[in-house]
Structure of RBR-type E3 ubiquitin transferase:
Amino acid sequence: MSHDDHCSYNKDADDYLIDEGDIATGLHKISLDGNTTTHYRFLKEADIRQRMEDDINELSTILFISKSEASILLRHYNWSVSDVNVAWFDDESGVRAKVGLLENPAPVDDDRQDSINASCGLCFDEFPRGQLSSAACGHLYCKTCWSSYVKTSMDNEGLGCIDLRCPEKFCGVAVDQDMIDSLLSEEDREEYLEHLVRSYVERSKIRKWCPGADCEYAIEICGGGIEDVDFEVTCRCFATFCWSCNREAHRPVDCDTARKWIVESDSDAKHVRAVIVQCKPCPECKRPNQKKRRSIQMKCRKCGHEFCWLCLQASCPISCARFVVDYRDWRVQDEESKKHENKYTLYSERWDANRRSKIGSLEELRRMKEEGLYFERLSQELGLPLTDFDFITQAWLQVVECRRVLEWCYAYGFYLSDEAKKFSLEYMLEVGESRVKELELCVGRESLDSVFRNEFSQFKFSEFRGKLLGLCHVTANYLEELVQTLKDGCLV
């Protein structure tokens, strides 16, 4: 059974555990006890190469074809063994024609003599027959032209280089990997293999690269039927992203709202909006002029030309024909613009405050794990197993997740038009902020030092662990209920 059909891993596998119900609803919750079901797995490049080899071997065995042919089929069908099987057994001839696999390849002359010359189909020079190569179609090209053809494709076409066809016009026969390996240098073969690795992830419906900075992991979803479900993935680098849009995780808002908010918060976009609303070009020199006074009479700061803000004429009385209607409309537009900016400022400041707290929590966790190996040192000094400190890491991850949810709740609030519901949301967010702050203080460095440094005892440790886990549970449940309330539209 292929990797895209079923995943079964042992307890020690490099998996991240999330609750089964959370995948179905799109909700993600940090597990503190580990009693959960695996739904996605992390893959490094070595793992991906092994997966590729396993899938090629499996398909080769099932269809009784060579590994090179199996590789060509898998690339065309986005590395899905099951998709290849369905298509192949439904219409083998059609599949062969589509991917460029001949049922009866051209015969290979095993008694080639260097004394027999033939011409290259690209450069048209003549070479001894043994210096010419062909794909399964039999069209001959010199090895120099073949190498150049493959290398140029690698340089210019990206992943397209793994789908090479014979360069003969109207031929379309696939060039297999065995032939490509024979034509390339060791360095170029490695580069070609890197393209294959990328294709294994990027062409798959169940695999994606983690978008975290400098992260080496790919994520593979286990199980079928969830490709179109919106859910979040947390990588081992601590990056959490939306599987659907590949941006940072953004519940409770959907992908379109998250995109709008990001555009809204872009400083260049804000400047453009201000220019559009508050500026008009001078009729003479076309330089934008910003209206800052109540008067509709403008004087260009560049050329000195005087004009009416409303009708752009050189001289216009205060009773401009457009004044009564347009000036009223402009005032309304200006007031609406200021109201919009004030509202945005209010929510963006809260959004940014939670974002900065989230980043700070991640940095603190990384410092604990990387600088001085904080938990290992505590384990040695206190004589406790290293696993006894896992709950602290999970608590920090819970803080990060809660801050992320609060962050995007403010984006949700910005687009909420019902004032009564907005008041209710702000109250719920205030409570949420208070609970997350309490959790942050409990898991902070000062709190940990007070527990582990001053008259440490097993009782004190157990008491602290119970308190921290309790806070995690209460805080996580509160924010999960908040997210579900927003998702269901149940604000009152």
Observations:
- Confidence is low (pLDDT under 50) at residues 4-38.
- Residues 268-330 form one domain.
